Amino acid sequence: MDNFQIIYDSYFVDVYHYVFSLCRNTSLAEEITQETFFKALKKIDDFDGKCTLFVWLCQIAKNTYFTQYEKNKRHISFQASVPMNFCPKRTWKKWKCNFNKGGAEE
Question: What pTM does this model have?
Fold first, then answer.
């Protein structure tokens, strides 16, 4: 764990800057960077040295970012498909949805 602390301290800022260049969002970049180091800690024994440690960490960061991006894209796509003034079926008989005004009327 002490060796990984050295890796974390040495590369956190550089990996953060790389992730920020992908997303341009400080809080998301910090979240993705933290997730990257968590994944790297779990998989550090799989690091084979064929590339530099920085490149390996950036690859994990990139994959983590794009996985998060795809999840958010699906979530936003679902939200966009449901109207903001959606009237649930159980209230349909009692209320008439007025989609033009965004509310419900009796």
Answer: 0.68
